[in-house]
Amino acid sequence: MKKIQNQIPYLLFMVLAFYGFPLIDRESGILTLLILFPLVCLLSAIVYGIKYSFSLVYSILVMALFIPTIYIYYNETATFYIVVYGVISLVGNLLGSFIRKIYIRK
Q1: Domains contained in the chain, number
Q2: In 11, 83, 92, 101, which residue has its Cα 20 to 30 A from 40's Cα atom?
Q3: Whole-angstrom distance, CA of residue 3 vs CA of residue 55
Q4: Does position 30 have pLDDT exceeding 90, yes or no?
Q5: Which whole number is the average pLDDT over 11-37?
Q6: Which domain holds residue 55?
Q7: In terms of Cα–Cα distance, which of 57, 54, 82, 56 is closest to 68?
Q8: Do 49 and 100 meet the contact criterion of CB atoms below 8 Å apart?
């Protein structure tokens, strides 16, 4: 339970990105899906991994948070991005965890 509590600020940031940005800028959907969201997923996961180490649950929750946006802002063709953002957050989380281990050893 403590691990999920640690994830809340990072997941709220993802919610703001996934749900807030399309409200602000409706016209750059593809740009958002291809550049902004992957960048936000990666950076958020790296920071979380550095601070709290690896968590598979974090990547699964990022994927789950994106699912409703498909039906709210996009269409069914954006379903592919669920896996993409999950993998990107997983890679970022692993990278952050690796960075954490390197600095803990020193």
Answers
A1: 1
A2: 101
A3: 8
A4: no
A5: 88
A6: 2-105
A7: 82
A8: yes
Token pair belonging to 74:
């996009």
Exposure letters 16-46 (e unless 16+ CB within 10 A, then b): ebbeebbeeeeeeeeebbeebbbebbbebbb
Do the beta carbons of residue 93 and residue 49 sit within 8 Å? yes
CA dihedral sign, ordered 27, 30, 35, 39: positive
Q: How wide is the angle at C-alpha 103 spanned by C-alphas 97 and 106, nearest 5°? A: 145
- Distance CA(40)–CA(20), nearest Å, equals 13
Would the pLDDT of 16 be above 80? yes
